[in-house]
Amino acid sequence: MTTAVDEDPGRPAIELAGVHKDYLSHGETVQAVRRLDLSIAQGEFFSLLGPSGCGKTTTMRMIAGFEEPTGGTVFLDGRDVTRVSPNKRDVNMVFQSYALFPHLNAYQNVAFGLERRKVDKAEIRRRCGEIMEIVSLTGMEKRAPREMSGGQQQRVALARALVNRPRALLLDEPLGALDLKLRQQMQVELKRIQREVGITFVYVTHDQGEALTMSDRIAVMDAGRIDQLGSPREIYERPATRFVAGFIGTSNLLDGTVESITGDVARLSYGEGERVLVPVSGTMKTGDDLEVSVRPEKIDLSQQPPDGDGTSVLTGVVTEVVYHGTSTNYTVKTSAGPDLVVFDQNAFSAEDLAGPGDRVYLSWSPQHSYPIGV
Amino acid sequence: MLAPYLLILPGGLWLLLFFVIPMVTMLSLSLQQGDIVSGYVFTGHWQTYVDAVVNYRTQLVRSLIYGAVTTVILIVLAFPVSYWIAFYGGRRKPTYLFLLLLPFFVSFVLRTISWRYILTDEGMLLGPLKSAGLLPDGFNILGTPVAVIGGLVYNFLPFMVLPIYVALERIDPRVVEAARDLYADPATAFRKVILPLALPGVFAGVLMTFVPASSDYVNSAVLGSSSTTMIGQVIQSQYLTSSNYPTASALSFTLMAVLLVGVFAYARALGTEDVMKVAAR
Lengths: 374, 281
Hints:
heterodimer, A: alpha+beta, Rossmann fold, CATH 2.40.50.140, 2 domains, six-stranded mixed beta sheet, five-stranded antiparallel beta sheet, B: mainly alpha, MetI-like fold, 2 strands, 75% helix
């Protein structure tokens, strides 16, 4: 049984050291996960985010014990569990399709883990009742999984794992099968439950919105590697790679050469009266080629040229206007080259700022230009 | 509006013609008296049933025992085979199933007769073993219950394998993983998750093998002897050799009644309604 006695708050709940996973597929070796180093703190809400096939699920399954790493070590709570079978690991998993036991009712599903651990009957009843209340399933005990809605099955899957008070809960795209409304509701609820039980959550998802809303930290994975690891804000505001910039939200990417540096602002020039201002970072110097990311909601769109020369300015022609309710999205073909997307909040403007074919000025302040990989 | 009724019309007619009418005819026959030359007359003489059961109770009981033993052996043989194909067959599952069914493309009787050649006293199996001194000269299999039950097991194997396979194949591997994740070792995961979910398949397999195996008459006729005579053989000879239609019909009905009672008791004991609900999910 898990006790809080030997808990060392400084020790990571989960640690992966040089973990590697190769598959043999049609006679060829596929590297699903490549030399991954990762440390997840006690009580953290940690997300593994990436497109399908990026290795996030394989990583989680190695933590759960369903896949054995080709190389490297998995530590749970400081203990090497690389070769330990899943039933002997103090982590529990919430499966994508819930994987409830179809021949057992909701209560029996929840009690399954405690029964295997030979917990006292009265204690099982007490803890199952408690956890089913936390996930709002009281009164559903006798229902069979097939008699429950997707959201309710989801809660059973969650309760079935949480009732064991594992060191970490592993969630594999747990909200993927729910409709949008329910998914948003469950996001809030999952976060509440996590705060309530104080267990480390490792959350695998391809939905960047979900990861940004819920996580303390996110690891963005691509092709078996972690591209960036950081808080949601860091990942969104300062994408480390072109992949992260493109995968998280909508990103505008601009290529340019540093023409001059004034104080802590580098200036990239394009056409007549056009410029992109970037905060100087690292070893940036005149003549460097930069890749700059600008988020669509940071850009101001206007039919008049902006005042002063303290902002980035690009000109272009509107090609598309899409109304989204809370915001309006403009696509602008810039003279500098790429199409830029601009989100305009509909808080102040009752009408569109411009229509297709209009010549417009795009401007944003220097701190919203983020140079990638510098 | 009438479409559903029209759709069951051909099947309904078929059942009426080849099931209901023969059954009623047989029931009536079993209560008639007379002989093949002067003809049979309906007299409601139910004493035929009593006499038939008293005279042939040995064969009746033997058939049920052979059927039961066959069914148990089939479960033991079929479960591992189905399990392996369902969980480890991978992309070759259809191939393995086809290989399993391949012998059954040959006629039932022909296959049973070929077993006769294999099992005969100086045949390809016992001959070499005897000349090597591994078996005594008088040893024989043919004509014993072992040969008959062996033949039954062989002939009904697919009817046990297929339903169990279907039940196992439908088990989501994630559900088994979930059990392992929730502290069940492989044996417990099998006992608590795989076995209960496979039960509807075993149930279907038992129905599909116990009933026909108990009433089979080919295996005992070809592989057995007078000491292994099964009720099916008695019915056949009463009909075709003795032309004693009332006794043959009475035995057929008795066998049917015994099997029906057995099946319902079995369903009740296993709580099949629950099991069937799971299967229908």
